[in-house]
Amino acid sequence: MKNLFASLATTLASTLLAVSWACPAQAASVPEAKPTIVLVHGAFADSSSWNGVVPILVHDGYDVIAAANPLRSVKGDAAYVHALLANIRGPVVLVGHSYGGMVISNAAIGASNVKALVYVAAFAPEPGEDAGTLDNKFPGSLLGGALQPPVAIPGGGHDLYVQQDKFHDAFAPDLPVGPARVAGTTQRPITDIAFGEKSASAAWKTIPSWFVYGDGDTAIPPKALGWMAERAHARETVVVKGASHIVMVTHAKEVVKVIEDAAATVR
Question: Containing domain of residue 206, as a range?
Fold first, then answer.
């Protein structure tokens, strides 16, 4: 009987030793959780502008949130996105398109879980700069001349819309005319307050940034986008040949590649 117990004890000790050696290897093989991707749309659009990007990111294993940007004021819109970020566990890659770049540059301040910023044909302002001034810093934007007369709204301020028959040329020249007309019809307005409000912060000064835009952008001149990317010392800048301001719609794969490049640096 003593020999039996001794044999069992030896077997148990050997098993425990094997497990103790196996566990670290098994733990090391478990992949780290990927960051959450938060997408912030710009003016004259809504979250559906990310419809080509979201399925690819989800397929690649990312949790994705497409925020409903209010488009009312830089400060208010940034506070809205900041509150959203505060409810996300784990690291975040924060992505902004167009005016959404103004928003993420402010929303990321004090959000310790934001580890990377991606600017998709987006403004990356210094404190004290506004979207309207940045859009006109270099020639080439058709946006200002395509706006319809401002629409007064309750409480003060005005809503800005792109004229539907000018939406294609000013915003989405690489879309067929039919889909561009639909996009122009369903656009969400931005207030003149938001478009003219000065940024309070520049999160790209302390958080690594990535940029992607098209060389056929007629809403924000490509020269302005390149200048902002250089000023921000972007980790990566990708210029998509022939892409318009809605590069994430017409070249979703290229945009996803840059977002995932940013995500790959997050630990």
Answer: 36-264
